[in-house]
User: What shape does this take?
Amino acid sequence: MESSIWIFLLLSVLKVAVVTVILLTAVAYTVLLERKVVGRIQNRWGPSRVGPFGLLQPLADGIKLFLKEDLMPSNVYKPLYIAAPMIALTCALISIGVVPFGKEVFVKGVDIFQISDINIGLLVILGVTSVGVYGIALSGWSSNSKYSLLGSLRSSAQLVSYELALGLSLVGVVLRAGSFRLRDIVDIQSTHGLLSWNVFGGLQFVAFFIYLTAAYAETNRAPFDLPEAESELTAGYHTEYSSMKFAMFFMAEYANMITVSCVATLLFLGGWSSPFGNLLPAWGGPVVQALLPVFWFVVKVFFFLFLYIWVRGTLPRFRYDQLMGFGWKFLLPVAILNIIATSLWLAYRV
Amino acid sequence: MHLVLFFIFGGLCVAGALNLLLQRHPINSALSLIVVMTSLAVLYLLLGAEFLAAAQVIVYSGAIMVLFTFVIMLLNAGREEKTHGSKAAYIVGFPGAAAILGVLAYIFLKQSGNLGSAKLGEYLVTTSDLSRVLFRDLLLPFEVTSVLILIAILGAVALARKGHE
Assistant: This one.
């Protein structure tokens, strides 16, 4: 009994460490991917000098940010100025802890493809993201600068408004699965491959559109990047930050992008399930069978990340009143209609 | 294990509440309130109310307190002046608070047999259990409450529009 607890603890710590390292590497390379893809969209090369195809650019950026002088303006409110980037990054990293990356595979009684499998996984992600607002809100206020303050005010208002549409868009999916547990939600989508995914067979495409739009707003990404609109606000809430503190905000933004992509994959695109369902014969040994779902998961997440960058390279920024009007007058009512339609349909089928 | 967690987060809750009163800057008080709300969520979780815990974090820590800090930031409220306090607070306030605390403690201790008790980590109330109670046994109060909230929202909108015309 004693030794099994130690093995459990050790494996859990190992899992957390591995997932964190992978996530941070993914963050670094998403930045590179974004610079490359946006570069090609704008008909230029993007980073290409550091290493083959610019592949070592994230490393060079990391070293640069570490070595930069950490400037602190004289009139900031110190405790919160220092705490804000930490809050932002911590909240961005925590929510990956409930995301399942592949089928349940137990090694010594520990599921190796998910850090923590809990009944209310989806709610935990929503809760952690909603607390993440404080990082941005407090950074703007404590910097004691007009650009930062305006940026963080915009951001808090935007996040609170779009959180409603985001939460309501997920209700349809939860109704279909009858559970908040992410594994249950994926399980009901993995029977007939592509056809049973929530976005197609589950008829949740309206919810999918609302979720994606609201999630772009939640992560402060274009076309909803008003909190850091450089033409009006210099850099928005992180204007006064430099060196690693700036890097923490930057990492938090990209980590949030990855979490949002993971959640979109799990809820609408069938998570780790193969798009071909059971059409393809099961080949390879048990190791291949365990790793194949992870491959599908990564492919889908990559698709969403690419979509993020594509949208950023294509769409112009919203105006502030358009942003609020779109969130409250369009997305929210449509999300509520989607819930009603889904409930009626489910009630009719039963 | 549960008991240790209870003492940690119970302590955090009380410490946050005290800090809320003692801090002189409104934003620090608001942040202490967030600590209180979030530790309460952990206490709910320890008692097995997982949906309530998540809702507490999402609604109170994540939405209502964001609006609090938003308003404080928007109004740019400064530090509070330290005063000696009003005499009424000393004469009526402290004894009154003590009396209410005493009465509540007395009633809870006396009625503890009727109220029943829940051990930490003993059982789990799943979301479907909760909704079954809410939408079957307590349907009428639930709907009445939602109508009440709707009226409050309409009232707020009506008040906000008045200045416009």
User: Anything to note?
Assistant: Chain B has a mean pLDDT of 83.
